[in-house]
Design goal:
Blueprint lengths: L3 H16 L3 E2 L5 E2 L3 E7 L9 E2 L2 E2 H16 L5 E5 L9 H11 L3 E8 L9 E6 L7 H17 L3 E7 L10 E8 L3 H7 L2 H19 L2
Parallel strand pairs: 3-6, 3-7, 7-10, 8-9
Antiparallel strand pairs: 1-2, 4-5, 8-10
Helix pairs in contact: 2-6, 4-6
The structure holds zinc ion.
Length: 213
């Protein structure tokens, strides 16, 4: 682990680097090709995900995705597209199809967790079982996980593997589970726009570092 100050200096340098146009064409015209990343707000429409004490997962996911899009406007190196911008259901493979067409440098699905034990809390990032440790998806997931935990101070549950629909795409892809709706304290945090903004900033930071490598 780097000391926190070294780490934040590094992150600042990375961000400055990304804000600097990479190619200046002859004649001085600036060319920049932003990376195109798909942010997927999990669930939607008739599929709410879990609902705990009136807070639905689909809503939390969407609010975070919209925040990433909004804050992402400040980072010309990144171009975010969303699989949904309102409360509608999009079939999973359509989400990937959309990503292949409009945002195929990276795919991140935003989800919120739930569990039978209300004491369980924290952030985890999930990869499909076919993704190798040390591969592109794993790298991206690890940086997002670290950055979201760094910004929120949530419990770090690390990287986990599951069988996910993202196995159907070659795009570096992961699923971030931003917290447990079943944990009363975490649910309260997830209901706050300030906290959701910290999550969104963490996601952007992780992606900035990943795409600067
Ligand atoms: Zn979910």
């Amino acid at each position: 682990m780097l000391p926190k100050t070294t780490k934040s200096v590094f992150v600042t340098l990375v961000i400055l680097f990304l804000l600097t146009p990479s190619v200046v064409a002859p004649g001085g015209a600036i060319q920049s090709t932003p990376v195109k990343i798909t942010i997927d707000a999990g669930h939607g429409g008739y599929d709410p995900g879990s609902i705990v004490s009136g807070l639905s997962e689909k809503k939390v996911n969407l609010q975070i995705a919209l925040k990433v899009k909004e804050l992402g406007e400040d980072h010309p190196a990144l171009d975010f597209v969303l699989t949904r911008t309102s409360d509608n259901f999009v079939p999973l493979l359509d989400r990937l199809g959309y990503a292949e067409e409009h945002g195929n440098d990276g795919y991140l699905s935003v989800q919120a967790n739930s569990f039978s034990d209300p004491r369980v809390n924290g952030v985890e990032t999930i990869l499909d079982r076919t993704r190798k440790q040390g591969g592109a998806s794993w790298d991206m997931a690890k940086l997002i996980q670290e950055s979201v935990v760094g910004r929120t101070d949530a419990r770090d549950r690390g990287i986990r593997y599951q069988r996910l629909y993202t196995r159907y795409t070659e795009i570096p892809s992961a699923m971030v589970e931003v917290g447990f709706l079943t944990s009363p304290s975490e649910r309260e945090r997830l209901a706050s726009s300030t906290y959701r903004e910290s999550i969104a900033r963490g996601i952007i930071q992780g992606l900035l570092i990943y795409f600067s490598r």
